[in-house]
Design goal:
Length: 271
């Protein structure tokens, strides 16, 4: 019998085969890396900051110039909550300065997304991958909440404050207001409310960075109620309790919304 037909000898199929090469999986990017980190001197940083500040100011000026062309419809819109009130121009050129002020506030509100973009572009090279993922949602959420704050102030806070102030002395005096004083009151209240509406964005950023947790926020609700009452008293240009209660209640509600967003992000975060 030949050796080739000997069943005792192993065949080629019985010889140990080499192990297949290991499958290399694509490595996940390190979220703590700084991909845009660039070495720059202090002078270069200051020069870049100066350019971005100048571009932001130019955007505000362009927005204000555009709003100045349509300032009379804007003033009429701001006068709508004070229905039935007679407005006076108490000094020569008062309405001119009022128009510039209204156009400035409106231009700043329109240019706010671009100003945020310039500011974030300045700090973006120093952010890690994890922090960069928060930039776009933070900018979008901040712009939406600022607009919501302006709308809430115009729709709820300003009419409530005016109704209280007018009805308080309705049987004693006839209301005739200075247009400048009235618009200062309305614009300050609207801007303050828009800034107060940024609270959920701040909470979500702190929670995403791991600096605070939802349980800790819930445990401090008593201090939040006190702080919202103080904020309502400070941010409200009038002294009426109705506006203070509405603004402090809105801040408390926004804080609860921020807690819900932080809790949701903690649940969706991979272990």
């Amino acid at each position: 019998m030949s050796a080739e037909s000997d069943p005792a000898k192993p065949g080629i199929a019985d010889l140990p085969q080499p192990a297949p090469p290991p499958i290399r999986l694509a490595s996940q990017p390190n979220l703590e890396e700084f991909p845009g980190e660039v070495e720059m001197s202090l002078v270069d940083h200051l020069e870049e900051l100066r350019r971005r500040v100048l571009r932001s100011l130019l955007a505000v000026l362009l927005g204000a110039a555009g709003c100045l062309l349509a300032v009379k419809p804007l003033v009429r819109l701001l006068e709508m909550p004070a229905e039935g009130i007679r407005f006076l121009q108490l000094a020569p050129g008062e309405f001119l300065f009022v128009s510039l002020k209204v156009a400035g506030y409106a231009g700043l509100s329109l240019a706010l997304p671009y100003v945020l973009y310039e500011g974030l572009s300045f700090v973006l090279p120093g952010l890690s991958r994890r922090e960069r993922r928060l930039v776009a949602p933070a900018v979008a959420g901040s712009a939406v909440l600022f607009a919501a704050g302006l709308a809430f102030a115009w729709w709820a806070l300003v009419p409530a404050a005016l109704n209280f102030l007018v009805s308080y002395g309705a049987d004693v005096v006839e209301p005739s207001w200075s247009i400048e004083r009235y618009l200062d009151f309305v614009l300050l209240l609207m801007v303050a409310t828009g800034l107060a509406f940024q609270l959920p964005v701040l909470q979500l950023l702190l929670g995403a960075l791991g600096l605070v947790q939802a349980k800790a926020m819930i445990s401090g609700w008593r201090w939040v109620v006190l702080a919202s009452a103080l904020a309502g008293a400070v941010l409200t240009p009038s002294t009426d309790p109705v506006t203070m209660l509405l603004l402090s209640g809105a801040i408390t509600a926004l804080y609860l919304v921020g807690i819900a967003l932080v809790a949701l992000s903690e649940r969706l975060r991979p272990a």
